[in-house]
Amino acid sequence: MTLSRQPALDALAQRLGPQGLWQRPGAEASTGAAPAFDGWPAHEQDWRGRYRGRALAIARPASVDEVVFVVQVCAQAGIPVVPQGGNTSLVGGSVPDETGLQLVLSLQRMNQVFAVDPVNLSMTVQAGCLLATVQESARAQGLLFPLSLAAEGSCTIGGNLATNAGGTQVLRYGTARELCLGLQVVTAQGEVLDQLTALRKNNTGYDLRDLFIGSEGTLGVITAATLRLHPLPRGSATCLLPCTTLAAAVAALTSAREHLDAGLTAFEVMGQLPLQLLQAHAPQVAAPLSAWAGSATLPPWVLLIEHQSATSADMAQQQLTQWLCGPAAGLSGLHTEQAVVAHAEAQAQALWAVREHIPLAEKAEGLMVKHDIGLPTSAIPAFVEAMQQVIPARWPGARIVCFGHLGDGNLHFNVQPPEGQRHAEGMAAFEPEVNALVFDAVCERAGTISAEHGIGALRAQELQRRTSPVALRLMRAIRQSIDPQGVFNPGRLLP
Lower CB count within 10 Å: N or C terminus of the chain? Predict the structure, then answer.
């Protein structure tokens, strides 16, 4: 450790105390601050286990003033800072590299809900608040914060905004960007940009809020946010609907939009293989699939549809049932007579558990090449059909695990390698070729290589290859002007 780093760590330890700065054995500050180690792995390794770094130290500030101090000290000492929320990134966007020279700045202690304004339909929270806490705080006031992810019990609102998280209700409510009214951000110079406005209209200059949302911690540290709330729906109705093709699924989406209108909240799709993995690795969660136990196999595709009503649960149920028995029943490829409709909140939660546990079933199954792609909805059937032909032909034994948010065109299109390649060496050869094949097909159809997970470290090189020189030049100019020293999250997004 150089002299410039040790005095910096000493200063941080003195200001933050033993709970605010974690150091390794042999790196204790001269102040005598005791290092803490139990939580280190959770900060140095990503959720998938793909990236495992080594932090110089872990700073855990409890206030915006402490964040300012950390950033100023690190900038002066030339210590790179990796902002981190719940560390649920799926693209290696929030863990340090292996050099041992980067400081992790965890926002988890900054977890206060400052205020909920039922009249203005807004709430202001610190960035370290869990998404689930934000949802519960809104619900306690009879309001809804609709951002909903499988990781909502562990991801933080700051991370959600830094990655412009999507989730299952984008179809109706939009991404995290649409749900944010204002931000508080600490810049690379250690200044506080305080724009915690609760206004819905503010045409005074560049929209700096949108600049930081989706920037993946490369432009500043989000420390607080003012969020947009919605009236809490009076009731909802949920169903599983089997169908034979993705073309039929897209036709069902078009029909549901027309007949259910703004009440259509979620329209998810799940392929046969991810449901089989769920049956194998989480049979209790897969229990709702027993409705089709009499069939030789599960349906080729299953839709999870949610409809909300501002009136009552009975009204939501009635409207969804009318659509299933009316317009949907007339569509080719839909098996509306086999639909599984939830008749109670517990049943609806069980149906949602099927969708939300698929990533865990994938993890239990083993190594896969993951893709978080976005396509025009009309292009999805042809894309998947082409991949279903090309991938098994190129790699016999490879399997496609496809599911996602059909309502907004976002698919999690994952590929399991042939049995003989399901190890680290096999994946090293398999993954680049599969990525090239899938991303070429996506870009040919005017899609995106990252719909909601972001770029992080995993897709940084791919972004360089598939983004126009003009866009890259502008992005680099923005980053250089805001963080000229490269303090924040080096190697992520723009390497």
Answer: C
